[in-house]
Amino acid sequence: MRDYHMVDRECSQSRSGCQCRIPGKSRLLACPNDKVESARTGANRGTLMNVSGRIALLLGSAAILGGVASEAFAGAFALREQSSYGQGMSFAGVAAGGSLSSSFWNPAVLSQVMGFEAELGGTLIVPTIKVTPTAATVATLDALSGGFAATSASGDMGQDAFAPVGYVAYRINESLIAGIGVNSPFGLATNPETSWAGQAYSRTSKVFSVNVNPMIAYQLNEMISIGAGLQVQYFKTSLKTATGVLPGDPTADLSGDDTSVGFTAGIQVRPFAGTEIGLGFRSSIRQSLEGTLELPGSQPLPIDADLDMPETVSLGLRQRITDAFTLAGTVEWTNWSRFGDVAVTSPLLGGAPVDLNAFQAGAQGLSFQYDDGWFFSVGGEYAWTPATSLRAGIGYELSPISDKVRSTRLADDDRLWLSAGLSHSFNERFSFDFAYSYVRAMDPDIDISSASNPSFNGLPFVAEGESDLHFISAALKVKLGGGARPVFESYEEPAVRKF
């Protein structure tokens, strides 16, 4: 046994762990993390990586993940696949903590990291997206083309995808924690039949993003932690459409990419034992796209366009009801109303607008006219055994895409989320998360019959839409070092709130 003294307490380190006692009081406290580390024997210390090794692994893991990020389809075109743990409860309470991957929504939750932690995983997305033209639309197309127009349905235009994510973090000292996350906040991949009734509005549509998010958190005391981070985001898009209604008509392609920066911030509060509240913010990022407009029979025209990606505010609550059961909830707002009109210009035209008639009649830009988006969810977590926890949750998403602006590229509407998941700890160092979600878009029918829809190009198009998705997610977690949560000298334990 090794003894040492701190201000106002005496601590002992043995093979069974470290405990501190305040003189004159009987209550035992956990040792502060840095004192535990300094008191370990040489044999125990040998089981941990040194600080430089951990930091090298942190950065190396992020670099590897940055090269394999994938694309997928989600509500509007924001992705919600950044946490296997959170997915098991339909992301209820994620901004309040629960897992290292919760740092995507709130960097302050890094305060729950006690040593070195890594979380590496991914989500398989299996969508079914179909757009079927009405009989009136087919009749209009036949009348315009003398019966030669493409009039078939889109087929299943959803593309299966795998979206990997990764997070690593390290507690530097009693108060400061550093981490990094790599994921894909935005994505879209739809590919209808090449010749279909809506080809004059869309063929292939793709959005791809990779976001690298270094973060730090500072634990002010046992009740309050704050955090902030930098976002470095690569964004790429390609939108293709047919130049006519006949089968085999050539394709116009508008594409561009950019790398830009933003930030994240958050706070986590534990007002009572068993209660965690988190508020997180992800800033808007302006993606100044540079790319080309390719029209049949013409040389590619260089183009510029500024996309203001939406900021997000997430509020999460986790409340322990009993020793085995925790209830969680989320409210999230996304400022999709930033997505209104997007000007497309060309340096070859002296910065003048580009004629996008192939995409929208008389257009000199792209018009989306989205509303703000909201997401609500509730869920629960039950400790079935000391090693295994079960989760379930339900969520509802108010889509930023209304009936008035829905397009053939994104047959999206309000969504219902039904999720279940589990976690299993193999030992003190390794654990595993698994989750499944079924997501159903409520009524994604399309009405582009007049100029009230910003996609209207002069050709009336009305169709029935269908969209549902299956998400299968898994993650492996690794923890090295660390112990109980640090106890701060000025901290007095709050009263336990009983339910």
Question: Can you tag this structure with a few keywords?
Answer:
mainly beta, Porin, 25 strands, 4-stranded antiparallel beta sheet, elongated, 14-stranded antiparallel beta barrel, 499 residues
CATH topology: Porin
How would you characterize the largest beta sheet?
A: 14 strands, antiparallel, barrel
Which secondary-structure class do the elements indicate?
Answer: mainly beta
How large a portion of the residues is in β-strands, by DSSP E? Answer: over 45%
Large-scale geometry:
elongated
State the low-pLDDT regions, or none.
Answer: 1-9, 13-18, 21-74, 490-499
Strand order of the largest sheet: 5-6-7-9-10-11-12-15-16-20-21-22-23-25
CATH class: Mainly Beta
State the separation between the terminal residues, measured CA to CA: 40 Å
Multimeric organization: single chain
The radius of gyration over CA amounts to 26 Å
Protein described:
The chain is mostly beta strands and 499 residues long. The chain has one domain (48-480): Outer membrane protein transport protein (OMPP1/FadL/TodX) (Porin, Beta Barrel), CATH 2.40.160.60. Helix content is 8%, strand content 47%. It has helices at residues 33-39, 42-45, 51-66, 84-87, 135-145, and strands at 2-6, 9-14, 17-21, 28-30, 116-133, 161-171, 176-183, 188-190, 205-219, 224-242, 251-269, 275-282, 285-294, 301-309, 312-320, 325-334, 341-346, 352-353, 365-367, 373-383, 388-398, 415-425, 430-441, 446-448, 461-480. The strands form two sheets. A 14-stranded antiparallel beta barrel has the order 5-6-7-9-10-11-12-15-16-20-21-22-23-25. Strand 11 and strand 12 (275-282) form a beta hairpin. The longest helix is centred in the N-terminal third of the chain and has 16 residues, at 51-66. The two termini are 40 Å apart. The relative contact order is 0.17.
